[in-house]
Amino acid sequence: MELICIVGILASLICLFSQRMRDSMMFAVLWLLYLSVYLVGQTFLWFQWDILLLETGFLTILVAPFQFLKWNRPANRHHDTITFWLIRWLLFRLMYASGIVKLTSMCPTWWGLTALNYHYESQCISTPLAWYAHQLPEWFQKLSVVGTFVIEIPVPFLFFSPIRNLRLFAFWSQVFFQVAIILTGNYNFFNLLTLVLCISLLDDEDLGYKRRQSLQGIFKVLTRLASACVYGLLIYWTIHYFSLSINWNKSAIESAIAFSHQEFLSFVNQSVVAGMWIGSVSLACVILAALWRSLADEGVMRKVWSLMQCSVFILVAVFMFCISLPSLTVVDRAAFSNLSPIVHEWRERSDFLHLTHSYGLFRRMTGVGGRPEIIIEGSNNLTAGWKPYEFLYKPGDVAAVPAVVTPHQPRLDWQMWFAALGSYRHNPWFISFIYRLLHNQKEVLHLIDHNPFPNSPPKFIRAKLYHYHLTSWSQNTNNWWRRKEVEMYLNPVSKESQMITSYADSAGLKYRPKKKGTRTFIQDFLSVMRHNVGALRGPVLIYSILIPVLLIKLIW
């Protein structure tokens, strides 16, 4: 697995340096490598952003050029708009579903517009700016939730607008939203990847590859009028359905949801169907335009070759669009059941490749009564001497400054966050983790910040559940967090505890010190890499690779 990761890093760096190597074959290799890691990583890689990266990676294979077919002359790429459209469709499904599930989940914080009152302290790894965002007045937090719904539900439909100004509005809305999330939360590469997907909303004129051609006469007037109507409807929709009003006495903008759950479900049904139709019409227009450009090529052979390429990518695009419909309609049972059985069959048969997925981030807001946090402690005496294990990034010490780790994802810290939401009985990996701490296993200790028993492992380990809250201005303290003990998450266990030994036997985890023997070149290479790189924290390692590469790329 380490070797696969190293090969993937090297292949990615090659793509950054060499434009010619940004080939569909190279991206196919990268996709297969990450798919392998995803399947092996299981629980530790089953996050929505890993799935999103897989789907984006596969679409990149279609978007990237196939250099071997150039035959020493520029290849006809009339089908680029077709494959690029699939990126836009993915972005639409991601954002639209993320907004819809917040309300279909019936989470009281989303319906009460109070979700952000808890989000900044309950998210997995907060940033220092999250502390300041948490101090904002409640009316602003509610207004921010309204903005979230607007950006995630109606605005994505503008992705397919033929009017450039509306697409630019949608683009900048998404950019603002993603940057705000990056500043206040550590969500690894997810928001950066979403920003990359947003590029699909731009055209060559926006990116400076073509000179901007302004509309003239009646077309200019009509587009401006249509844009004004859309903006007006969006403002009216927001004010009406969220009861926006100015309270001059409190110097605040008040808001509240003005529709019922049943009304929203009816809207979901209509909007899902509308999304499918808009997507179908948009894709059809893109396909017809690509075919028209192919027919406009000079020479019979060039026309035939262009049409052949377009035909292949049209079939692939239609297939990808169809198998993505179940993931879009999963938010509405009626629309899901009305899909053709053939579509469901295609989706099921291709599911092992993870080509498309359903999304829905922050479905329910956790940590309403306090952010649950597991603190693991070790001791050589059951009655005294308990010392905490400190993790690299998740909250532990209340005085520790929240970390900034983007685009790195500390997988163990994230899993600890999920484990705190339930029981260790539902997280078998947690028992495996405790078992390895009881043996001071070096590979596992590298994943935490401080081991209070460096010389020999403790005889006992326990885990307590705390509720953490961000401190406030009024508390006049230097601490970032305050906490309260809730209960014992895991009672003290030792190497001889029946639960530990039974689990170790059933999972084949019996710890055996590694025996020295003949080592291969690959083992020696990985050992050297592990020794030299292991001392660096994840974000430092990523930046130490990316920054020099980007500087060289800019200078070169």
Explain this structure.
The chain has 556 residues and is of the alpha+beta class. It is built from 21 helices and eight strands. The model has no long low-confidence stretch (mean pLDDT 90). The protein has helices at residues 2-17, 24-41, 48-63, 80-104, 108-111, 116-122, 128-134, 138-152, 164-184, 190-198, 217-241, 261-295, 300-329, 333-337, 341-350, 411-420, 428-437, 442-445, 498-507, 521-533, 538-555; strands spanning 245-247, 252-254, 371-379, 387-388, 390-391, 448-450, 460-470, 481-493. A hairpin with a 4-residue loop joins strand 1 and strand 2.
Which residues sit in consecutive blocks of at least 5 with pLDDT less than 50? Answer: none
DSSP E strands, number = 8
Largest sheet: 4 strands, antiparallel
Task: Give the spatial strand order of the biggest sheet.
Answer: 4-3-7-8
Shape: globular
Strand and helix order: HHHHHHHHHHHEEHHHHEEEHHHEEEHHH
Mean pLDDT, as a whole number? 90
- In which range does the helix fraction lie? 55-70%
Number of helices: 21
Distance between the termini: 33 Å
- Which percent band covers the strand fraction? 5-15%
Write the layout of secondary structure elements.
Blueprint: H1 2-17, H2 24-41, H3 48-63, H4 80-104, H5 108-111, H6 116-122, H7 128-134, H8 138-152, H9 164-184, H10 190-198, H11 217-241, E1 245-247, E2 252-254, H12 261-295, H13 300-329, H14 333-337, H15 341-350, E3 371-379, E4 387-388, E5 390-391, H16 411-420, H17 428-437, H18 442-445, E6 448-450, E7 460-470, E8 481-493, H19 498-507, H20 521-533, H21 538-555
Family: Belongs to the lipase maturation factor family.
Pfam family, one: LMF1_C
Function: Involved in the maturation of specific proteins in the endoplasmic reticulum.
